[in-house]
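[Help] Beginner question about ligand-bound structures

Sorry if this is basic. My supervisor gave me a protein sequence and a SMILES string for zinc ion and asked me to "get the holo structure". I don't really know what that means in practice or what format the answer should be in. Inputs are pasted below exactly as I got them.
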Amino acid sequence: MDTTTLSSPADLSDQDLLARTMQLAREERQATALLIAHLAEVDARRLHLAEGYSSLFTYCTEVLRLSEHAAYGRIEAARAARRFPVILEMLSEGSVTLTTVGLLAPHLTAENHQDLLEQAWGKSKRAVEELLAALAPQPSVPAVVRRLPTPRFSSAASALTAAATPPQGRPTTVAPVAPARYKVQFTATAETYEKLRLAQDLLRHQIPDGDLDQVLSRALTALLEQLAREKFAATDRPRGGRPTAPGSRHIPAEVKRAVCLRDGGRCAFVGASGRRCTATGFLEFHHVKPHAVGGESTIDNIQLRCRAHNAYEAELSFGPSTLVGVRETPGCYSVRTEFGHHRRPPAGGNDGQPKRGIRTSFQ
Ligand SMILES: [Zn+2]
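Answer (accepted):
No worries, everyone starts somewhere. Holo just means with the ligand present. The predicted complex, written as structure tokens, is below.
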């Protein structure tokens, strides 16, 4: 960065300082509008998927180093600008801001966008909110009065007492408080609360202070084991990968289990520049060599994919229309904790096989 530019403001006259500041603000607006125009094109070409990112948001935060808030606002504006390019010009000249575009975007239609954007010209966030309130009045928020249980127990190691009175409107909170430490706060039903107390009591000989982190960790481990049995046919006594019947699209349970273990419960798509996708939610089983061209449901030919990458590769192979009628069953989750030691080495490719396929969801 040119340090002379940074140090020069002190040397400017008042008039020049104001003029220079105004010029910089104008240049910033223009740069932002240009960035948004490029983001819109990246989004349209879905280059973030090709690079190994499951969403444009992840690409913006990890590659472009935008803050989450900045990424969200720019993506929202980019998608609105794809529909109504005039927004870019208005952002550049400062007649709308990212905030007001975000407010307006859900209400803009081909019929009303010119009128609505004109009305929002130069208006503050509050004024645009009032404009939209008149356009689409919202029903009054119903009053809610709810009694929260008074904690009956007190333990130095327990956060149950604090969890009994969360702030109104934010019943669940998860926030990092230090590296590898998270504060988790939520409102529990009386039934859940009793189960938690019972689990603490039954584990008292192993966890004398009833530490909630340890108790919940054990409970979740047991839950993950159960879910793995249900969803991945996980077992302590695997029978080994049996080849499926030639021509069958069915993925045997042993193959699913082995693929989940090998891929570490994480999307195995690798982008053009070698970046492996980090998505662990909404995973699907993917035929590397498509079933339609003879790809078998074997461990070598099946990989985990997030939904975005499975759809992306299916479209690369067969075009968008092939997605119609393809079964899509949500119901996926990360098993990284459970199978962390079995994670596949960083994927550097697909063993020379083409990265094409059709989607097969978890069953
Ligand atoms: Zn992915």
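A couple of things worth pointing out: The pocket of zinc ion is lined by residues 54, 267, 269, 277, 279, 305-306, 308-309 (CB under 6 Å). The longest helix spans residues 14-45. Feel free to follow up in the thread.
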